[in-house]
Amino acid sequence: MAPPSNRSATRRPGPLVRVDMHVHTMWSGDSTTTPEELAEAVARASLDVVCITDHHTIAGAQELAGRLPCRVVVGQECRTAAGELIGLFLSARVPPGLSPAQVAEVVHDQGGLVYVPHPFDPHRHRLRDEELSGLASSGALDAVEVLNAKTPPGGCRREAASFAQRWGLPAGAGSDAHVPAAIGAACVEMEDFHDARSFLAALRSPRASVTGRHFDPPRRWAPRVVPSTRS
Question: Residue 145: which of 179, 111, 121 has the closest Cα?
Fold first, then answer.
């Protein structure tokens, strides 16, 4: 008699999901992307998840969760005097006026993840080098954006990838979209997840990969009427 098969005990990897980890909407103030435009762009880019990371607010992400043809991770891009940090999987807004270390503490207290956007890009509100290294050495960082669609190929991206590798941090990617056409220009293909912890595990998995292209055309000015984001 043949020995019993253990195939049923072998976990087969599931399909990958496409995640844009850095997206802005009209709630950001410097973006005019409406919910309708976002929904169309998400479908066009075949995204499964968008991390909505508006400046200074999570109101748009909370409102749009369940209204898009994809899942939404509630995030916020937080401006500090030493540069910007992103919090993901937030349940409450991160207040202004905090230091990078304080932002990280507030995000972690909510069970969220601290994500470094566009590091080493001199044309952005990047986190200063000493702050970046200090947060990494203290274990306050969870992931690093190694591919930002608005950052041209070259040294900045290589530095970001090298930094992530040096500190053992998983690589993230996002479009940093402020217009609908940019959404999905950069993303991560990764195993599916259901919360912050499983998201981070999927990002660390060997199956995770960043993909995308440089997409930062000049924004043509045009008069628009965007609905108010104030309640």
Answer: 121
pLDDT profile of the chain (231 residues), mean per 10? 47 86 95 95 98 97 96 97 97 97 98 97 93 97 97 92 98 97 97 98 98 85 68 49
Taking the C-alpha atoms of residue 81 and residue 89, their distance in angstroms, rounded to an integer, is 23
- 85: domain range? 15-212
CA separation for the pair 97, 112 (Å, rounded) = 19
CATH of the domain at 21: 3.20.20.140
Interatomic CA distance for residues 103 and 180, integer angstroms: 28
Count of domains forming the chain: 1
Residue 30: DSSP 8-state: S
pTM (global) more than 0.70: yes
Report d(CA 36, CA 94) in Å as an integer. Answer: 26
